[in-house]
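Quick review question:
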């Protein structure tokens, strides 16, 4: 669907992507202006729609692009040979912090997409998030040594409790960000809070 855009030289692709990410991240979907995007990217509006079809398709393309780039970087860095569950999850949180520093604009765009209320794209984004979370949770759990967990508990239920704990943490932080005028998320605070939960959960569920 986006073959015309993907056939462009990399420099031009990057210019358009960076301009669109900046506009959507700063203003949200409804208020983002394609006029500003083409002005920043140095192309005509006709060409922009030639590449993406419409504003909605461009937004969803950018969501996939940002998520894919960050996921690729994440899986290049994480040690999937680490078999301890909590060490693996702590490692994942640290890598996310590193990537946040490396790709702040991409994370800002993804955050805004998660917070997006526009009826035009909200359902599509929520569907993508649900599918991607399901895939990524499965990968992060691969090769874990479950023998460290207590024998008197159902491991599937334990993993659900742990997953729900951090999902709820994420939901609360996103809700706070949504109420904030800047939509800023304090990742360092989240990391420190997550460390406290790791300690409690490890004491609860490990032998």
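Suggested answer, residue by residue:
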């Amino acid at each position: 669907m986006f073959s015309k855009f993907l056939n462009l030289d990399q420099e031009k692709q990057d210019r358009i992507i960076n301009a669109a990410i900046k506009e959507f991240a700063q203003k949200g979907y409804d208020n983002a202006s394609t006029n500003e995007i083409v002005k920043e990217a140095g192309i005509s509006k006709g060409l922009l729609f030639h590449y993406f079809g419409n504003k909605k398709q461009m937004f969803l393309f950018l969501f996939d692009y940002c998520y894919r780039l960050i996921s690729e970087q994440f899986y290049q860095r994480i040690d999937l040979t680490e078999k301890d569950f909590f060490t693996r999850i702590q490692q994942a949180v640290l890598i996310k912090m590193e990537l946040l520093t490396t790709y702040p604009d991409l994370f800002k765009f993804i955050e805004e997409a998660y917070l997006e209320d526009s009826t035009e794209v909200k359902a599509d984004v929520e569907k993508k998030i649900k599918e991607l979370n399901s895939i990524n949770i499965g990968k992060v759990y691969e090769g874990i040594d479950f023998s460290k967990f207590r024998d008197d508990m159902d491991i599937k239920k334990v993993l659900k409790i742990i997953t729900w704990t951090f999902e709820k943490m994420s939901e609360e932080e996103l809700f706070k960000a949504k109420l904030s005028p800047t939509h800023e998320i304090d990742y360092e605070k989240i990391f420190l809070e997550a460390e406290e939960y790791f300690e409690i959960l490890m004491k609860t569920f490990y032998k």
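Why it works: The chain has a mean pLDDT of 88. Residues 63-205 form one domain.
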